[in-house]
Amino acid sequence: MRFLLVDPPHKIWTILRAWTPSPGCLQLLAYLEREQFDIEYMDCTLNENPWKDLEEKIRKEKPDVVGITVICTAFVYDGMNAANLIKAANPKTIIIMGGEHPSFMAEETLQDCPAIDYICVGEGEITLTEFLHAVEKKEDLSKVLGLAYLDGRGKFVYTGDRPFIESLDSLPIPAYHLAKMEHPFVTLPSEGKRGLVINFSRGCLWDCTFCSESAFYKKTWRRRSPKLIADELELLKEKYNRDIFYVGDNTFNVAREQGIGFIEEMLKRKTNQHFWLQSRADLILRDEDLLDGFREAGVYQFMMGLEYHSDTVLKDIKKRHTVEQAIKAMELLKKHKLMVMATLLIGHWNETERDRNDFFKFFGKYVDHFGLNLITPLPGTPFFYQMKELGRIKDWDYRNYDYLHAVMSAKEVDDLEQLNLIYRDIMRRYYWRPREMLKIFSPNPILRHHHRYYITKVAFNIMMHEIFGTPIWVQPNYQEYKDYLVESGEALPKELMALVK
Ligand code: B12
Ligand code: SF4
Questions:
Q1: How many angstroms separate the CA atoms of 469 and 71, rounded?
Q2: I need a surface site. Which of 130, 213, 396, 492 has the fewest CB within 10 A?
Q3: Residue nearest to atom 2 of ligand 2 (CA)
Q4: CA 446, 452, 458: angle at the middle one, nearest 5?
Q5: The pLDDT value given to residue 492
């Protein structure tokens, strides 16, 4: 039984020109490796010719089962295109897809892409293990919890919820040895050359209406214990020379003990690594006494989802913090010499131009980095169902569900393109302020490096695009699937062209 896990070809993260092997995939692979399956991993984004290499691999090696990961809603068509290509290259290969979006939209995804045989709904490790064993032994797949598929008559079948893994400490260290850790895309150039995105917990205890993570993990939170986190970080230092990290955990310090344990471990290990952590305003206030410890343990910045400057909007999206708490948290982080990043959401239904101007003044004063997003109804979230019901979703092309494109109108702005322009205008006004420009001379090396990188590479590229129409940067090996099909001409059946997403 040969299993190939595929991360289909994507654009890399163009905002920061960064990529990372999916932490979820590396975790799945480590688990399957421990179960002694014959496995391989192909992160197509890092291949010289992503689609061609994938097709050739399938034709040549004919794996029995291929798993396709879909980490973001915006990537679902890449996953479907990969499934179609794989099925055409070897119709006998069984395809199973996993990730948040296909889990939430299992029936729609299966109907939309018949090349996908199964969807793993929810957490993958145990479901995939049982699935592979069942396929190998030709057992009844309807007994494997967490699977969705269409039966022989095209009827949707869901085998039932798979309980969450009790303790993340039972999972092995992610299979970094199967990833191309030295590939030039695998970095965080805005933070430093040896950057990486890592993940140590799953879920969150809050229930912000727009959040797919909280929906996927059903408002639960599990974490790896600090000792195992530190072991993994040591491995990343010693074997891969990695020293600066975006920690993907949505809310790092849900429990105070997690922060305390992390600080103790990192102070003990003295690995001299640096961390960007995510948290909530109320938790920063609760853990004020730990902030110096976090800094000494290597944390340089906290990112908080502060979202908006009005308590009415915060209440609407069930953020469960107040504007007052947001301000205090930003001030506290500054006081303890930690950098502040805020992610913010615009495009709310009742939003006015005045709100947007105030918003800008409000956050512009405090934040070092600014993550501006357009509120997006991610499938599976309460916000999605609410907006669908109200008929406010205007764009159903999931490629645009990346927080950077408007897919819903607002009361005052019906036209989505107009909202996109408003978004870009805020970004422009923010980054071209003298206050931001001066940060390229900041005595803080991380801030200085980030702003130099961002302004010279990203903002400048966008400005040239807007003034002279020069193309927006994408990595040189990126190829649209349909372009690949055209290029490969007769090699693929004509019907495939009709399935291109
Ligand atoms: C790493 C990461 C990235 C990496 C991508 C790496 C990659 N190779 O895809 C980078 C940094 C590049 C990135 C970028 C973006 N990301 Co991102 N990212 C993450 C992050 C931090 C970790 C994902 C992860 O591994 N989680 C941990 C694992 C355990 O969970 P998992 O991936 O869901 O996998 C489990 C199951 O889903 C299942 N499973 C998954 N795949 C498969 C496959 C098979 C076969 C099976 C059986 C099971 C299975 O099993 C896994 C283990 O149990 C998450 C946040 C988070 N904490 O999850 C956001 C997250 C996935 N990103 C998100 C977004 C929106 C983006 C961006 C669009 C942001 C932006 N506006 O630019 C960009 C898009 C990139 C681009 N090309 O432009 C959202 C997605 C929301 C959604 N539903 O669409 C998330 C959830 C963050 C958030 N809460 O908003 N991201
Ligand atoms: S606090 Fe963050 S991770 Fe938690 S539910 Fe809200 S948006 Fe999601």
A1: 31
A2: 396
A3: 250
A4: 120
A5: 58
